[in-house]
Design a protein that fits this description.
The chain is an alpha+beta fold. Helices cover 44% and strands 14% of the residues. It is built from seven helices and four strands; from the N terminus they run E-H-E-H-H-H-H-H-H-E-E.
């Protein structure tokens, strides 16, 4: 299992801890340290609607201009990975939000 997010995020830390407690072999992919690319975002969007993947409560979202908020896209998420709700979990077959 791969958990995508930011290592300092409480929700991400909780998800990693819960997975390990359940005996799941888990790997953390930290957006800030390991980055994110267009193909990964597109893979996530194959299972998660863009509206559900967007973290509209983030400081980054609040700092965007109105055009960016009207037309969010893959490039915006790649450039600003904190716009992605956390954690995103990949179980080897499917991406989903939350553990």
């Amino acid at each position: 299992m791969i958990i995508y997010g930011i290592k300092n995020c409480d929700k991400v830390r909780s998800a990693v801890k819960a997975a390990k407690a359940d005996g799941v072999d888990v790997q953390l992919h930290d957006f800030r340290n390991q980055g994110i690319d267009e193909s990964l975002v597109k893979a996530m969007l194959a299972n998660i609607d863009l509206a559900d993947l967007l973290n509209k409560r983030s400081t980054t979202w609040k700092q965007l201009d109105e055009f960016q908020k009207i037309e969010p896209n893959v490039g915006l998420l790649v450039a600003n990975p904190t716009l992605i709700k956390r954690p995103v979990v990949y179980d080897g077959q499917k991406y989903r939000i939350g553990y």
